[in-house]
């Protein structure tokens, strides 16, 4: 248990235990959904500190649920196989050839690496995809986009990109009552058994909504949401987030992140956070210190 005590030692330096305890009590027994991705997954030191923090959360009575991404790893494998990628509003267009690669990388290599790292730090992690126990049912995602030249609106064909529907909450509740930490690959299952690639942020938001999670944490490779002047927005309401989306103040991969946060809060999630996964122990900084970090989105 030396690894856990090391994390607790860090916690004492970042904020006294007496300061952190009220936060721990407030979150005890509640589900916390963490979308894990970006640079934090590719750096061995950050991956280890992430695993330690997730194990600590479980030990203090919080129920962490990890939903992971894997965009860079998928891109590398597709590149090796000569399969080109196209993106629409930050979402990867996934054809029949690509979906096989996506499932192999997400539900196979990456998922098991994360599970192994958490278990090495004293946890009991179990890897799942949305296909296991029909954990995440999905349907084809319909995405409206606008032609840059003509301005005409059309429905983009994203192939096997899915939109999450029903989430098997009973399965997650059973895991939450045990010592198990679920690690979920964002692969959904269609009505006919089809495989769908779900944006990891979107999948995490759907899981958070289904569980009525106290918080949704999205780990990314930027400090948080930036305004038009490039300055970090530390906190915003759902109304302010919607205005940023409609004004075009955010673009690319931040669009589905903000959309996910808004939808999760509308469906019983207490708050949503966009955090810089490159910062060691960023989850503990956000949860157990007064100042927090990143961008927090709260109900209006």
At a glance:
This protein has helices spanning 2-14, 17-27, 39-42, 44-59, 71-80, 96-120, 169-176, 200-211, 238-247, 254-266, 282-288; strands at 31-36, 63-68, 87-88, 91-92, 124-129, 136-140, 143-146, 153-156, 162-167, 180-185, 187-189, 195-197, 215-220, 235-237, 272-276, 295-298. It has 300 residues and is of the alpha/beta class. Strands 5-10-2-1-13-15-16-14 form an 8-stranded mixed sheet, with helices on both faces. The protein has a two-stranded antiparallel sheet with strand order 3-4.
Describe the protein in words.
This protein has helices at residues 2-14, 17-27, 39-42, 44-59, 71-80, 96-120, 169-176, 200-211, 238-247, 254-266, 282-288, and strands at residues 31-36, 63-68, 87-88, 91-92, 124-129, 136-140, 143-146, 153-156, 162-167, 180-185, 187-189, 195-197, 215-220, 235-237, 272-276, 295-298. The chain is an alpha/beta fold. Strands 5-10-2-1-13-15-16-14 form an eight-stranded mixed beta sheet, with helices on both faces. Strands 3-4 form a two-stranded antiparallel ribbon. Strand 11 and strand 12 form a beta hairpin.
């Amino acid at each position: 248990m030396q690894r856990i005590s090391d994390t607790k030692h860090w916690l004492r330096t970042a904020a006294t235990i007496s300061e952190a305890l009220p936060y721990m009590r407030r979150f005890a027994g509640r589900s916390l959904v963490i979308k894990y991705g970006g640079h934090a997954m590719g750096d061995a030191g950050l991956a280890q500190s992430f695993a330690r923090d997730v194990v600590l959360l479980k030990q203090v009575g919080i129920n962490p649920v990890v939903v992971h991404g894997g965009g860079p790893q998928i891109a590398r494998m597709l590149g090796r196989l000569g399969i080109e990628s196209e993106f629409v509003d930050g979402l990867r267009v996934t054809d029949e050839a690509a979906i096989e690669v996506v499932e192999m990388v997400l539900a196979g290599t990456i998922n098991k690496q994360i599970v192994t790292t958490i278990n090495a730090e004293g946890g009991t992690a179990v890897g799942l995809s949305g296909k296991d126990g029909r954990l995440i049912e999905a349907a084809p995602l319909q995405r409206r986009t606008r032609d840059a030249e003509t301005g005409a609106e059309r429905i983009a064909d994203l192939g096997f990109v899915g939109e999450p529907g029903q989430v098997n909450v009973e399965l997650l509740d059973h895991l939450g009552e045990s010592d198990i930490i679920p690690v979920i690959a964002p692969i959904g299952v269609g009505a006919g058994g089809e495989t769908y690639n779900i944006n990891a942020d979107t999948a995490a938001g759907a899981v958070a909504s289904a569980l009525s999670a106290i918080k949704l944490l999205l780990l990314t490779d930027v400090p948080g949401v930036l305004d038009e002047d490039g300055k970090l927005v530390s906190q915003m309401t759902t109304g302010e987030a919607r205005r940023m989306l409609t004004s075009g103040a955010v673009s690319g991969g931040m669009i589905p992140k903000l959309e996910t946060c808004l939808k999760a809060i509308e469906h019983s999630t207490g708050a949503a956070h966009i955090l810089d996964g490159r910062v060691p122990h960023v989850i503990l900084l956000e949860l157990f210190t007064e100042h927090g970090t990143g961008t927090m989105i709260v109900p209006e």
